[in-house]
Amino acid sequence: MRIAVLGGGFTGMTAAYYLAKKGHEVSLYEKEKVLGGLAVGFRQPNWDWYLERAYHHLLDSEDDILNFARDLGFKDIFFKETQTSSLYEIDRNAILGNGATTESDTGQVGMIKQILNQVQDDKTMKNIYRIFPLDSPQDLLNFPLLSLPEKIRAGIVLAFLKFSPFLNIYEKQTAADFLRKTQGEHVWEVLWQQLFRKKFGKYAEKILATFIWARVTKRAKKLGYIKGGFQTFINHVKNELDQLRVKVLTDYEVKTIEKRNEEFFVIRHPEFISGSDSKKQMLNQVQRDKIVKKKFDVIISTLPTVIMSKITQNIFPSLYLQKFSNLKYLHAVVMILETKEKILDKTYWLNVCTPKVPIMIVAQHTNFVDKKNYGGNHIAYVGWYIERKDPLIKMSAKEVLNYYLPHLHRVSSFKFHVSRFYKFVGPFAQPIFDREFIKNKPAFKTPVKNFYIANLDMTYPYDRGTNYAVKLGREVSSLIK
Fold first, then answer.
1. Domain housing 448
2. In terms of C-beta distances under 8 Å and separation of at least 24 residues, what long-range contacts does 289-293 make, across chains too?
3. CB-side exposure of 162: number of CA atoms within 13 Å?
4. This protein's superkingdom (predicted)?
5. Is residue 195 located within the same domain as residue 158?
6. How many domains does the chain have?
7. Which of 238-252, 268-282, 436-450, 452-466 has the lowest mean pLDDT?
8. Which helix (H) or strand (E) holds 93?
9. Neighbours of 407 (CB within 10 A)
10. Is 160 strand, coil or helix?
């Protein structure tokens, strides 16, 4: 069959690969100049490896991308233990206030005295920031901002989530309600509240408990990366697609899809179909070739649901498309900093758990991947999820840097200088997993026969990631014989 795959990220590439292996005639459409989607990388002249525009890693519990790599004969994936930590604002009230740890708590006296002494030594500081590792049960027991009973209670709930199968009760309550009821209000405020607010903004208390279950159950100490960067894997996949004679069309934005009888038409410019006869006659043959409406038996859309809805208004019932308007998203803004000195000491992934630092996460990439691959310089990501109208979207990279750099210097224990910096925006990067989402999210099959959807909204309840993109691509390809 003639199959069009819309979107050249990992979902689209995976689907195209397995469909071509079955002998289908596959065309893969991508509006950017290169394949790869959110995993695409770039490289400076003095770098040996590519770097992703947005932070990427694999979990050692993820099999789909490893199996895909094995099928393609790609072996350059490695795993490494990393440290995840959280940043907290510390003052006397936070430590000795109502519901917090007291100095009589076993094993905490030394750490608490050290923190309090630092506050007292610097009279100019109203607060200080401290980074605490939170990777293991031992880390939780050593965490000074909760009492021992609170830590035991929190640990029991986390263990339950880790080993629990998916339960329907998770979809019947929000994560905030679940964590408050099971761990207590103070634990919610200390461990979770800022994580949810930084990730989901005003929707923080509407996110379903399925989200926290999925995050805990898939949590891994070892993270994976690709030698040379994810772009090397993308290049390898592209070569395999070429060998299978998949027609890859990059820098090609599909504007609309139409259906006549049993055939679909992928159209680059809608005027070619909907324009007047006189307009059509004005087009010479070269122009017609550029906007050709190619026929297909099957369409697979891996595009964001918002984009897919716009280009399929001619084929889908309005009631079907209307339900997607209830889905909500946040956009990702990512800054990449290149520095001679590291920003974080040992931590790879830092969750910022204070509202006074307007940053969601800092990821010290070169605490995960050797700095020698980037000209001997350190690389750090700084990330946010924000609303479409947030000023960060339109601010220049320099403006964003000037906005948050003073906060980053307060967080870091090192004096660092930013030599190069980059800003990237990822539209519709974070779906809001609320009750409306589970009622309206897309599924593989649609009301129109032979039109399939496989996009990252369908990773629910798991957070988006390359492994799930590959999983979706393989699953949708299995629906087509």
1. 2-39+230-327+434-478
2. 291/267, 292/268, 293/258, 293/265, 293/266, 293/267
3. 11
4. Bacteria
5. yes
6. 3
7. 268-282
8. helix 92-96
9. 17
10. helix
